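## Example record

The block below lists the input lines for one assembly entry, exactly as stored, with component labels intact.
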Amino acid sequence: MLRASVLRVRPVAPAVGLQWRVANRFFADNKKPDEIILPGSQSANTNADIPAPPPLTSSANPSPSVTSTIPLQNVPKTPPTPQEVRAAPVVQPATTPPTGTGTASVAPPPKAPKPKKRLFRRFLYQLLVFSMLGYAGGVYYSLVSDNFHDFFTEYIPFGEDAVGYFEEREYRKRFPGQNSTPRLHPQVTGENKVTIPSKHGLTSRVAQEGEAKGSDLGSKGRHVSALEDNKPAASPPTLEAPKAEPKKEEAPKAAPAPATSTSMIDNLEIPSAKEPIVQDVVKILNDIITVINADAAPGRYSNVLAKAKSDLGKVIADISTLKESEQKAAEDKIRAAHTEFDDAAKELIRRLDAQMQEQERHWKDEYENEREKLAQNYKQKLDSELEAAQKVYEQRLKNELLEQSIALQRSFTSSVRDRVESERDGRLSKLTELSDSVQELEKLTAEWNSVVDANLKTQHLIVAVEAVKSTLENADVPKPFIAELAALKEIAADDPVVAAAIASINPTAYQRGIPTPSQLIDRFRRVATEVRKAALLPEDAGVASHLASLAMSKLLFKKSGLAVGGDVEAVLARTEVLLEEGDLDGAAREMNGLQGWAKVLSRDWLGDVRRVLEVRQALDVCATEARLQSLLVD
Amino acid sequence: MPDSSSTTPTTPVARTSRPMSEALLNEKWDRCLSSMLIRSGLGLSFGIVFSVLLFKRRAWPAYVGLGFGAGRAWEECDSSFKHAAAPSKDGLRVLRP
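Predicted structure tokens for the full assembly:
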């Protein structure tokens, strides 16, 4: 906010001056980082920036006063059409040194200082660049194309060196490790140049008439035609004769010696020259002679040639003598070598013979030794074989003997056994009889033992039952009789009847004991009073009926003795009588006949009575079983 | 009231928490009386409070409260007597025709 307001306020003083502009910069400006403007550095340009006085006429409708005063650059241009604007590329304005933010201060465009010198320099630079580019391109293209290679190496200075350098590099890259000597011609490197002087070799001259009869190009007039018969046909026979002259077939191209010239020098003829060197020399000489003969004045050279001929003859003779001497020496040498070889061969044969004899002797000795050794070996082997065979035979004999003895022993033992068995059988029969009788006796005693055991068992059973009964009868208060019952069960371990009888007893009975008959009677009296209170209750009695029953039961008459009737009072009287008689079973039956609240109240007492009855019944069953067991024994 | 303490003989059976069958009715009477006392007392006290707060210390709200309490106790007692005689059917499924 603050920054924005400052930015908005600042353009109030735009045209103060350039010095101020520098001072007016704020931190909030979007300044360019690397451009430092020293104060006063731009003061030279201030004159251009002073804005012109505002025109009297607006730019929208220019008045005719434009004509003289306004410079050309200040004339507003016609605005471009929108299409042009759209089509024209966006030209970024050249970066100008930072000035103030005011619209009136626009920095001048940068001038191009001293264009002439820079133009020349640029020309030089471009020339260098283009020439280097061209050179490089030429080198490259010459490596590619052979035609251009020729042109380039021929006409461009140092082109051959450059191309050669690159070819060399490529060659080395392709075949590394080879000789590093430059492959180029020595003339390229500038060494061993052979300079041929200008006046050297054959020179041109005008062909003379009569020289070279083959062609009459030097003469005037009509030349020799290839088609027609030529007139000066006299030359062929003369040409044939010197051709036959040369002494050898090996030199058929002897120069044609003109027969017409009288003082012709004879061709050299050395029949004995068989060496090729000599022949060559002769040929050279003959050529020279032919040349001289062909020349106009053979007579001038005749002396020299004759001397040369004689010298040559001498030389040839020397050569032949030398050859002969050499041949003789060689023959001598060959003969000496033959003799030497013969001696050596004899020596060799002699040595070989000695060696063979020695070897033969050696072999004979070895053969003897070997034979002796073999004979000894075989003898040893035979001895050992014989010994082994004898041993085997003896062993076999021994084995047979042993087998016989074993068979004898076996037969003896079998016979002894048979005897013993026959005698033993007689005694054993008596022993088996005795053992049978003993076994019978044992059986008898075992039977009696079982009888005695069963008796003892039943006795124990009876004793145990009696013990339980006595504990129950002698108890004044209910006592648990688990120990006695456990003893009874242990004694009658395998008796299913006793087990079933014991299992029929309610566990609470033997865990807590059963009440005595006197206790039962006592409790019955208490129960009877309660039952009497609830005697008059109807079914689903509420509080009122309970109160009524409670009150009315006091008024009831008590029955006694074996009363007749199904009402509560009669039942109670009968039960009491039965209890006093000791008939627990009957008493329980009577009480079980009650209904409603009376039955609910007497439930616990009935449970007690039933438990007592169960115990009594179970004990009776056990006693009966014991008696039955004792009866079953016999 | 018949004494409930005499019903517990010296037998070890009496050790169980379950009351003897002949003492069932007596126990019910005890419970009825105690509940009647408590409930009628509560009703009475509520009646007295209401009479003091709302009814200018009239006597009848106190009697009404007493009646409510006593009646409630009577009803409870009645239901307990009625349902005790019949064997309880808790945990049994009732098959209706």
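Chain A touches chain B at residues 477-478, 512-513, 515, 519, 522-523, 526-527, 529-531, 533-534, 537, 539-544, 546, 596-597, 600-605, 608 (CB under 8 Å). The CA atoms of residues 411 and 417 of chain A lie 10 Å apart.
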